[in-house]
């Protein structure tokens, strides 16, 4: 079924009785050419691009819960490509270009809104760093504008510009950045992959990975053994657990990242704003709620809930940036499990086990990378080699010292 205005009109006239499920609910087959473990954005995008770009359609996506029940539905929907280092910049810009054509490609409204991403600067040193980042972006052909305080004030006049601790001195703006509806993205990729023959198997938890003579043979699941010549792991904060089933230890840690949404208010914030003096970001949803978040909780955890110290830290940053926040009610909070790598950058690579592939270490960058992550992971799985866009995202870079340290924080996951 193709979605269109004419189809919407026809269904309105016939009482909405002609719609069919967006994707099938098949029983898993005994064997596939490729398995993708993880039914989030990255896993579904991988399956879709395996089918579309490489003609590999005998593929199954295995999800332990329902589609979108993991990190895909627990993020703050921001998309951007304002990265500094060569190992990341070209990759995230490719993702941005895929975002710009994604809705037409998938025939699905993912609510992509290029409303702009504004990174504030609160000191002279921060302005120098923003200028360096902006220059690096422009050298890679990515849009970037360095604004002074007056430029920021003209764009977002409601901020606290003269805060005694954190005065706003300017900002770095990427107008092509913005937001996308996270669950719509997942549903769109699921539907598009299904239309190309991919089996999406929900409520199918992987309980073991079968390896023989250094080669993956398939996976044990709650619905029986499923064989495959290639298995890709795209399970975010659960990557360490899944890799452990194959006898591997990954250079990542799992941490909780909290996010919040306020009660709905009239339209106020028409872009994405990040607080330069700390890790805080905010945008306004189409429903009117202010969606915001901050740093990860500093302790390791697999729990999808956070701790009160970080709640306090996030609210302090909110108040410092936007004093009117003191009059708003916070409706709810939630947590996602971040797979924090040792240098703050992702891993898309083959594993030491033949036929087993890794997509992990996304830290804060997972959602915005969804299309390019799937595109590059599909390339790596199909061709058994890295694409130039993910060539620097090697697993062995932590042993060789070729890190992609975007924040310059060293090999400490909790500092990224």
Overview of this structure, please?
The structure is a single chain. With 416 residues, the protein is of the alpha/beta class. It folds into two domains: 5-78 and 182-250 and 343-415, FAD/NAD(P)-binding domain (3-Layer(bba) Sandwich), CATH 3.50.50; 114-177 and 253-341, D-Amino Acid Oxidase, Chain A, domain 2 (2-Layer Sandwich), CATH 3.30.9. Helices cover 29% and strands 27% of the residues. The chain has helices at 5-13, 41-54, 86-106, 124-139, 149-155, 182-195, 239-245, 308-321, 370-383, 397-400, and strands at residues 31-37, 59-62, 78-79, 117-121, 145-148, 170-174, 178-179, 199-201, 206-212, 215-221, 224-233, 252-264, 272-275, 280-284, 289-300, 330-341, 347-350, 356-360. The strands form three sheets. Strands 1, 2, 8, 9, 10, 11, 17 and 18 form an eight-stranded mixed β-sheet that branches. Helix 2 crosses helix 9 and helix 3 (86-106) packs across helix 9. The longest helix has 21 residues, at 86-106. It is globular and about 65 Å long. The protein starts with a helix and ends in a 16-residue tail after the last helix.
Question: Which structural traits does this protein have?
Answer:
FAD/NAD(P)-binding domain, 10 helices, eight-stranded mixed beta sheet, 416 residues, globular, 27% strand, 2 domains, D-Amino Acid Oxidase, Chain A, domain 2, alpha/beta, 18 strands
């Amino acid at each position: 079924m193709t979605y269109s205005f004419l189809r919407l009109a026809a269904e309105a006239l016939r009482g909405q009785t002609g719609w069919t499920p967006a994707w099938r609910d098949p029983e898993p087959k005994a064997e596939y050419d490729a398995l993708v473990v993880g039914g989030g954005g990255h896993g579904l995008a991988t399956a879709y691009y395996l089918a579309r770009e490489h003609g590999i359609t005998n593929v199954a996506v295995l999800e332990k819960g329902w589609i979108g029940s993991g990190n895909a539905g627990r993020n703050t929907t921001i998309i951007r490509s304002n990265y500094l280092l060569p190992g990341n910049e070209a990759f995230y810009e490719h993702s941005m270009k895929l975002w710009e054509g994604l809705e037409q490609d998938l025939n699905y409204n993912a609510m992509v809104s290029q409303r702009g991403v504004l990174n504030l600067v609160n000191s002279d040193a921060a302005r120098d760093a923003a200028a360096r980042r902006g220059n690096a972006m422009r050298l890679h052909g990515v849009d970037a504008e360095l604004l002074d305080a007056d430029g920021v004030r003209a764009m977002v006049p409601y901020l606290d510009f003269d805060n005694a601790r954190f005065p706003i001195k300017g900002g770095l703006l990427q107008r092509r950045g913005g937001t996308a509806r996270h669950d719509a993205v997942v549903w769109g990729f699921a539907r598009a992959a299904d239309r190309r023959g991919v089996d999406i198997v929900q409520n199918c938890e992987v309980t073991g990975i079968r390896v023989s003579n250094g080669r993956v043979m398939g996976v044990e699941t709650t619905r029986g053994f499923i064989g495959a010549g290639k298995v890709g792991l795209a399970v975010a904060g659960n990557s360490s657990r899944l890799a452990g089933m194959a006898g591997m230890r990954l250079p990542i840690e799992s941490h909780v990242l909290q996010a919040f949404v306020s009660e709905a208010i009239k339209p106020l914030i028409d872009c994405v704003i990040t607080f330069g003096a700390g890790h805080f970001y905010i945008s306004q949803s189409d429903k009117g709620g202010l969606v915001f978040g901050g740093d990860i909780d500093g302790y390791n955890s697999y729990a999808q809930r956070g701790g009160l110290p970080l709640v306090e830290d996030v609210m302090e940053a909110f108040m410092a940036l936007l004093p009117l926040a003191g009059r708003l009610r916070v409706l709810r909070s939630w947590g996602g499990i971040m797979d924090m790598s040792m240098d703050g950058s992702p891993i898309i690579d083959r594993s030491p086990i033949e036929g087993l592939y890794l997509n992990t270490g996304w830290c804060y960058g997972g959602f915005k990378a969804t299309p390019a992550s799937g595109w590059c992971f599909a390339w790596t799985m199909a061709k058994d080699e890295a694409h130039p866009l993910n060539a620097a995202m090697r697993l062995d870079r932590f042993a060789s010292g070729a890190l992609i340290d975007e924040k310059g924080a060293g090999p400490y996951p909790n500092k990224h």
